Queue: 3 jobs
Job 1
Amino acid sequence: MTALLVTLTGSSLTIDDVVRVARNPGLVALDPAAVAALATSRGLVERAIARGETIYGINTGFGKLANVRVAADQLDQLQINLIRSHAAGVGSPLSAEVVRAVMLLRANVLLRPTSGVRPALVEALVQLLNAGLIPLVPEQGSVGASGDLAPLSHIAMVLIGEGLVLAGGRTRPAAEALSEAGLRPFRFAPKEGISFINGTQAQTALLALLVHDAEVVWRTAIGAAAMSLEALRGTPTPLDPRIHAARPHPGQVAVAALMRELLAGSEIRESHRENDDRVQDAYSLRCTPQVLGAVADAVRFVRQVATIELNGSTDNPLVFDTGEVLSGGNFHGQPVAQALDFLAVTLTTLMAIAERRVERLVNPDLSHGLPAFLTRDPGLSSGYMMVQITAASLVAESRALAMPASIGSIPTDANQEDFVPMGMAAAYKARRILENARGVLAAELLCAAQGLEILHPLRPGQGVARLLARVRAAEDGVKPLLEDRPPGPDLERLASLVARGALDPAPGLPC
């Protein structure tokens, strides 16, 4: 029997919930009290419609067409036409895990009483999710302003039995997939189409998954930095807690503390304590807590934005318990887009300092006694020369991608939507930068591990030794470099381990 993953209330969804549902099979349920509150809200909407009030998106056109009144007998068709006309996405499909996250977020927000939809709509969406049907959602086409209109419309198309789903590695007509799953197409009633597609859930789903993955990358980066410090025979003096207490940024304090823990018991440090003529290490070693601490503080802010957005009312118009139905702009994705851009910049910082440590590890002028390019036969062998070049290319690409998307508004909808945040563009860039960060960390882990092998039999700190053992694990790890071999497969293997959290030295440590 499939385990229950999450019960939605409309107000308590967490990033961990999103990750679980997106990446694991299981069932999502609806809180009965939240369903009852939504039914009450829907009654307010139906009474307003019965009174003949003019309400945006319920009995009017949309956007620039808001001043066009729609006849009462066409209100259901209005919602269907909205969905069909807005399913304008293009490009490669979003991954199954992202679409599952989008569906979960949309169900959670629609469950809030401010949405004013029928509980049956939320139930239909959750049934689709629980059946394992993944709508084909093109990743391009949203500017993130009146919500992620195109991505959400492609999901809505599947609900009404149109569009396509991904199943078994191929696309299938939605009607066919619904029938096989024992589900019937859903018929949208007044307000439900616009409520479904007005929302930031596509960009927010990507943000939530990225926050989780960025935290794993941050902790792994601390472990990689500790390995490099040992391989380069650096000093742990800059990690002294008194230094960080004198400038107590939370992330900086946390990074220094974890590095001290990883380096405890180092024989390598003791071997050069008395005869090292260096007064100070380079910034890429000495300032690791300050730089990765700033990364942590930024990721913590982004997590806060994501958490608020997971449980915020982002559809339009909103229904309140007074019976008023108010049109506003909570669908505007600027907070999410800016957070995604901030995440892109900070992950680029994380990988940029890691690449500088890779350079020090392979450069005989900077590595304090390690052989050139970490090969025991420099000249005949090139060792890890290309590893640093690969890392440099990933950093260069990420720097170009880190240009903010959220400042790149292009007015849309006949200039009615005259300032838009480009949140999905920010999400794509941040996702690519995260992948690049994993690659650069793979390069640092590969080189640092080789440096530690060269220093053997001196043993590194206990935490570093555990990381080294994990890098070398027989089944999915990387063997020491004894003679030249293509480093690409090793980098891919380590990047996969980083992505899975297998090289995370402190799982669960918050930023």
Note: The two ends are 36 Å apart (CA to CA).
Job 2
Amino acid sequence: MENPILVEVLRGSQIESRHRGALAVSDPDGKLVLALGDVEGRVFPRSAVKGLQAIPLVESGIADRLGLTEAELALACASHSGEPVHVAAAAAMLGKAGRDSGCLECGSHWPLNEAAAHSLAAGGGTPSALHNNCSGKHAGFICLSCGLGADPKRYVQPDHIVQREVTAALESLVGMTLADDVRAIDGCSIPTYAVPLAALAHAFARFATGEGLAPKRAAAARRLRAAVAAHPHMVAGTGRFDTAVMEVLRERAFTKTGAEGVFCAALPQSRLGVAIKCEDGAGRAAEAVMAAVLKRFVTLSGEDEERLAPRLAPRLKNWNGLEVGRVRVTPVLTAPDCR
């Protein structure tokens, strides 16, 4: 099946680029209320499932035993920008487990936030694993390992108890076995599993509502959603889509970007889960589709729409600040009866 064009990028009045993709919106029973493109095709959800991967940390009671704060739980779900508040929270999580940054196995990179990267460089610093956008998730994994009484060394390997617990939680949400033949290695070195887009949307509908989950797992999902809603800056950072959207919508939407044009969301108010994959891996296209989905399925006030306008109707500017184009979703996505 050929995926439809979901997003167009205009320069002036002319279409300069087009992005094809697939979109699935599911209810907790697995019924698709919206399906565009190849929703049965498998995709690697990458960082979009960090909230789901944090469930064992909360469900096990280890987060409470270690005294993790709600801001730290939000960071466990994050692809953060490496700003000082993110780095400090990741270090604090490790400290509560009696560990330090030397235990992190996610690798190092410069902060995603330009100002934070410039500040670090200007001070003669170099990036550490704490600056990695996945350090909060990895700090959570180390907390889980220590709480289970296991040596955290090699916690990124599929046979480590941490990844066995995380994979089991993912399987319960997507409703299928995640076998070795669909496993690959994520950017931060943990296992990532290719799953059908429709199953991914179903997982996020369960994450949004708790339906189909055991009571403790549903409670853990609810707590993680609340933590992110209370601390949206921790899950992304300054100027980032997820933070900007959740600062407005709070508990009405849990959105999470992934690499290579993947984007997912849990919409508790609407009882829906969303999964997006843009064929060419373009993040700007995935954001445009997610914004359109939020506008369609989340009740927005006039003030909400005004605050979200830069995301709902992105404008392109050049280095002189001149508006040169815009990003728009196509009618295939906005038609009232699209399925």
Note: The longest strand covers residues 14-26.
Job 3
Amino acid sequence: MPELVLSSVDPKDGANLQRFIDVPKALYQDDPAWVAPLDMEQKELLTDHNHFFKHGKAAYWLARRGDQIVGRISAQIDELYEPIHKAKVGYFGLFECINDVEVAQALFTAAGQWLRERGCEAVHGPFNLSINASCGLLVEGLETPPYMMMGHARPYYPELLSACGFSKAKDLLAYRLDLALEFPPMATKLTKRFARNIKLGDIHDFPRKQAYSLMRDLFNDAWQGNWGFVPFTEEEFAAMGKNLNLIMDPRQAQFAYVDGEPVGMMVTLPDVNEALRGLNGRLLPFGWLKMLWRLKVRKVSRVRVPLMGVSSKLHGSNLAGGVAFMLLSNAWELAVEAGYSEAELSWILEDNKAIKDVIERVGGVVYKRYRIYEKSLLA
């Protein structure tokens, strides 16, 4: 058997970066549920076009046996993490590997050593590249395609991570909603009860730049104190906003108000992954035509709620639940009106009882589970 060799990947080396991006295309070629992310998006993620690199750093490796690439991994440090959590934690991400413990151990050793040399005492992951991007290893629900900005995995990955000394840190849940069902009567009663105190609006309520700034503030406020929280920076959210403008129904970028004050937000997006299936990550020469036809003519059938937050000053109150119910109810109505039949709300921390209760009351069912792993680097 050829010797296993690891090599670092310079993101400025276009050919080697493309090899890094292409690793999962070979690993998942027999998996009908996998959807290749766009190469152009992956290049933006991994290079200094990504605003993560204003407050973070990363390194990438490829594993080879002879002429065959057999795995990849990233290691990264988010400099916003330690001041908030008072811990020297680094991340791993973008892990893909053949079913071989030796390869996995070599990849995690390289990532761990890089983090250790930069003062990290523990590693969490996978994060691609931060907690505000795609994260978690899919451990349940591998039989169905992932929604946009959510990951997929090979079924043997949990065993590889366990063999490399990793253990569970936290689970992230994805809920499915069948929009063909009637909005639960009990939930309807609750939304009517709270309608006297809570008013809804959308992104048209403000100039676009101001609206995204407000969304960011609400999201960061709502999520502060949660496990692993790192805030969105202004640049990161502004860049996200530019991408949202391309696909979002502006009515589905909602705000909730109490006494005229914004106290909640929620964004619902069409599942672009439906339009990307079979393109193998490439828009050229004709992939972009297929994607546009699927999005604009055939239409997609699914939507995802990737962003939702309720002001921290309402947490623990009945009003917080009311805000969530109102936002979900309106999003449901708009999605059905637009012809969508299914929605995913993701991701939700496994111990976030308040939002889990709201989602389950409207009929949401956990159908995918993503796991964040951890390992000490002090040994």
Note: The chain is about 35% helix and 30% strand.
